[in-house]
Amino acid sequence: MSVFSNLPKPPVAEKKPVSDTRHGITRSDDYAWMRADNWQAMFKDPSLLDAALRSHLEAENAYMEAAMADTKDLQKTLFAEMKGRIKEDDSSIPMKDGPFAYGTAFVTGGEQPRYFRIPRDADHKDEANRKLLLDGDKEATGKDYFRLAGLDHTSDHAFGIWGYDDKGSEYFTLRIRNLETGEDLADVIENTGGGGAWAPDGKSFFYTLQDENHRPSKVFHHIVGQPQSEDRLVYEEKDPGFFMGVGGSLLDDFIYLDIHDHETSEYRILSTNDLSAEPKLVAEREEGVEYSMTEGGDVFYILTNDGDAKDFKIVEAPVAAPGKENWKEVVPHTPGLLILNHMAFARHLVWLQRRNGLPEIMIRDRKTGEEHAIAFDEEAYSLGLQGAAEYDTDVIRFSYSSMTTPSQLFDYDMTTRERVLLKTQEVPSGHNPDDYVTRRVLAAAHDGEIVPVTLLYRKDTPLDGSAPCLLYGYGAYGITIPAGFSTNALSLADRGFVYAVAHIRGGKDKGYAWYEDGKMEKKENTFKDFIAAADHLVKERFTAYENIIAEGGSAGGMLMGAVANMAPEKFAGIIAAVPFVDVLNTMLDDTLPLTPPEWGEWGNPIESEEEYRWIAAYSPYDNVGAKPYPPILALSGLTDPRVTYWEPTKWIARLRENAPEAGPFLLKTNMSAGHGGKSGRFQRLEEIAFEYAFAIKVAGKM
Fold this sequence. Notes:
This is S9 family peptidase. By secondary structure, this protein is of the alpha+beta class. It is built from 13 helices and 38 strands.
């Protein structure tokens, strides 16, 4: 018997067939009209949304509310639990930089962070030492959506750039704050990527401008006090398939222009000795060759996969001549040992790598070459490398957690190897790690590959197949989902759920080859790996098919759409957050923000019939059929530039048309947010509580 009963009739979307022929293949799309022609303008001003579209989205929201009405009390309970595990007046450990240390803090009831600084060696717990630099709650007053982009101070600590997005569209406005008086200057820099890189003198900075198609295609130089219209264009990237970012070095010697897609990169550098110069090319882009740079005094350290170093190596090159012809290997490539990122300091080279699916931090003495590792002994855990804000230091900062262990923050002396625990994440409502179990199990995929799956559950959870399970997956862009601590997941574990993360192909959990084996023509491995994880959990009696709720967001939402089509009978329910489900249509639309940059990830169906057919074979929207789909919840943001609102809207309409007896199919569109959902820390918990309430309802555990 369905847990959904007495539902009103769902909205029926109007059908307006539009035909499209590519490579001799004709498709008809009944719901293409849902893509607003004025989407660029609407992202900046949501009131411009077509009335018919708004009416349809509001009808979908009303239907969703009716379907979830009986979970209102459960949502409130879940929210209270999750909020109770968060220290409301929490504060970071400030990072030392010159005469000050900079940090963030929240106040009880506050949604947004406050940025502060203290004298370098002052007690950060003594609020009398703190100087408030930026109050996020104050800036967010009266706004339905508000997201800060951080605060970046000048070398002399006099001014700071801060940015905000108040639409959810990821067009950020930059302001300049006098850090002594707290007043903003008259400068207003609009339509940016969200941050800037100061010149050493603190009188100007560099930033990226988002074009009309929401791509960071230009870098500008802004002089404090002059209008944005007079900013100098420093560099323009002509290829719409490449992203661009701008940043500075710890030594303030260079401005970096990082130009890249998902598999190719190129750096241009600008010496801060001459800000009017043209950026200097380091190594010309070569398809499939990636590199990233950090400064080490008279040398650059460069992380690269050049020369078949699939899992990356580190080379060095003279600052005066950093071209590829001068690259000299310092950390060799080791197959299966993936180097993730690197940092350089006056006396040490530091990098984060993943061995056998687990992270470790490596440290090398630059003078002696001696190396050592920072590693831990749990079966599955997460490490975060924060480094330091200063170059001439022996102390770096890192974080550690596991599925059962709250996050711990350490300062680490790279010379003495002394580890100092600075902070342990507090769980005000209480948490006993001994009440829970975290495990890493291994699932056999369809082709014999072994897929790791990280589990969290209470010790008293029966492992006889009766436990409900939330199985999470992503599997794209080489992103690895860490086995870290989640206070929210405890609400499921405490209700008898097995919380599982499938480390499927498309991520880099087992090295770069793991990523390559889940992209382009091999994308279906991602979906089959996820299904294999579900099969393994059932086989080992952690759960049963009728108890598994699958969850994924964005590219993980594509995963949800694909497994719903491939194996609907193996899931009790599916949660698809901002799901990238209309893959073929999106990859055929080169005006959309992410389409050209994504061709290297999924394929270019405009130019290649073969790549068109790859995508058409799995694109969730294009493969919806008359199948026994489980209940599906799709979540969307009206101003989302990454996965546009019409993708999940079209998908739900087609599911309902093709499988009217299945489901139900629910769509929740946030009419005042984008890709990340609501922006406040507690507002976000409300959304998670809603998702978990759906999972608990579908599992029959209300």
